[in-house]
Design goal:
Number of domains: 1
Number of helices: 2
Strand content: 25-35%
Shape: globular
Strand order of the largest sheet: 2-1-4-5-3
Distance between the termini: 19 Å
Length: 92
Amino acid sequence: MPSLYFCQPHAQNQGMLRAIVSFDDCKYLVAKDNMIYVGEQFPKVYDGSSQSADFAVLSIDASEVQGEWRPGYYRFEADLMKLNQQLLTLAR
């Protein structure tokens, strides 16, 4: 199942695993056309700029690929607080 990471460049972190989600949950959390496929390496979180916005990364393992998904990492811009609220509704 896909892994969802929260990335906060201002905190200079490397991305924090926030949830393991189903492919159906991915569709609920963000539209696929709002994601950018960035390849098979986790995107760089901190670029040295203090102006970088928070974002999320979806990781899909090659052994779990389904349909039109590709193995690797998808990046998307997100308000992490709102995204977290969506995750909490999925957990109920």
